Amino acid sequence: MPSPHLAESDSDGPVLMAYLGWLRRRWWILLLAAVLGTAGGLAVSQFQHARYTSTTSLLVRPLGAGADSNPNAKVNLDTEAQVVRSLVVADRARTLMKSTTPADQLLQSATVTVPPNSQVLQVAYEADSPAQAQAGSHAFAQAYLDLRKATAQKSLDNETTSLKQQITDVTKQLGTVAGRIAAAPANSVERERAEADRSVLTNQLASLNNRLSPLLSADTDPGEIISDARLPTSPSSPNRTLNLASGMGAGLLLGIVLALALDRLDTRVRRGRDISDRVGLPLLLELPPRTSALAVLPATHKISRELGRLRNVLLSAVPEPAQAGRGRQLLLCDGSAGTAAGFVAANLAAAYARTGQQVALITTKPDSALTAITGVAEGRHSLAAVLRRDVPALKALAPVPGLGQLRVLVPGDLDADVELPVAALLEILAELAARFDHVLIETAQPTLAVEAQALGRHVDAVIMVAEAGRTRSGELTAALRQFEQVDAPVIGAVLAPRLPAPAGGGPAGKPAIPANRPKPRPGPGPSAGAMSVESTMVLPRMKPSASGASGGASGSAKPTNAGGPLPVTGNGHGSTYRSRGDGPGTDGPGRGSYALDSGEDLG
């Protein structure tokens, strides 16, 4: 049955909430991891040694003879940044700082950054004290400027010296050529050659003078400090804010990984698709995730409406019994220890009863919460009494307050350590099926209750009931395997919400046993006075008008042998049961079979 509450996935796959569901379930891991990460960041801040940083900004100017004539000349600051962090600059800075620390260690404390689209270098220096940080930053900046100026001046001097030497040589050559011109006759070939050489040397001398002139006027200004290092007023590290944020981020990341790992290892069923994905069992219904009461809910409640839709589906999905006049038998089995099957069975039975059909609800669990759910007090008339042949099954049924069409057979003093007689249970179910339109049976998981597996092959349908957050997929798989061994008609599963403990429950969520619960009668039947007080008249089952039944005005008719109880003998196979309240000799031959008419008043 499609459920409106199974809305965590669509045709394209799981939506975001399906992925974040495990985060909601493991929020405490994330919170704890974030707190621990923040505490770790705070501890790191406390144990870290305080360091101070000071920064000097440098404006770097281009050097060379053509720098003044080209205002668009740019300096490659990436290269200059590497120069600042060179050992040559570090050694000069060490001299300016008058420090005994090796130059390579000083370099580890210096950093250089280049702001984008600028001709500025920012030289930062980190030290243990504000004064050392200020002195180190200024020393590295000044050492860089000094080195750059010295390098430029040396290059300029070398070029000027070279040009002056070339001019001297050319001047000497001109003097020699002038002598040759004076000695050569006019209009001679030698004179013409000498005059040609003089012209070449004159042009060469002019070129050298043109190259020398800008060098003599060239400026060797490498740049200047535009923002000198200041004395730091607060430490740059540890950065407490950064440490706390980093610790929290690392803690959250670790928490997410841990929560995801735990969620993958957790086999508890939390949503409907867990059942279909892990177990392969069809999901009939996923009830709303919350309920505040462990009781038969009113018809207007959301859970009651959902179970009403499940009832409608079951009326069409579960085939009609092969035997005419026999009501449908539906087994609801717990997937794990708890009250889920009882809660679903009681409210599903109420949904059937609200349609006007006769419904019987029986449980084979000694610790069943049906008493607390339905409000039916345990008396002498119980399943244990029926199994001991103290009272007929129809007599032991108790009405549910407010639902006259629903009768409940409470467990009584069933012994959890004794296997229930399956043959006797089948006789009881056959008798109830002959008198009621629907018979719902609550059992514990078949891995614990042997009768659950045995009854599964005799009913019309079996429904596994899982409780969100408690039932594990392995438990459902084991239970399903037990039913598959006997070819039980398991039609699907119902996911119940996380249920509260029964009101006045005892340990482990078991319903409290009334202290004044009457003991089973040793005789074959209840007294007339007790019967008049605890009278429960079972109404006849409604017959379709087209059935052709000749039932008379009341419409009651005795069930056929095929739909009624099997013949029972006092000591037949599985026909007797000894509960905790029995003493020796209570299982006597006087407890025989019984059969009641459909319209008989049992009171």
Automatic annotation (TrEMBL):
Superkingdom, natural source: Bacteria
Bilayer topology: Multi-pass membrane protein
Region described as Disordered: spans on this chain: 502-603
Subcellular location: Cell membrane
Primary residence: membrane
A Pfam entry, by short name: Wzz
Key words of the record: Cell membrane, Membrane, Transmembrane, Transmembrane helix
Domain Polysaccharide chain length determinant N-terminal residue range list: 18-107
Range of residues in the leader sequence: none
Cell membrane keyword on record: yes
Biased composition (Gly residues): 582-591
Transmembrane recorded as keyword: yes
InterPro entries registered for this protein in UniProt: Bact_polysacc_biosynth/exp, LPS_length_determ_N, P-loop_NTPase
Membrane-traversing stretches: 27-47, 242-262
PANTHER family found in the cross-reference section: CAPSULAR EXOPOLYSACCHARIDE FAMILY, TYROSINE-PROTEIN KINASE
Family that this chain belongs to: Belongs to the CpsC/CapA family.
Name under which the protein is recorded: Wzz/FepE/Etk N-terminal domain-containing protein
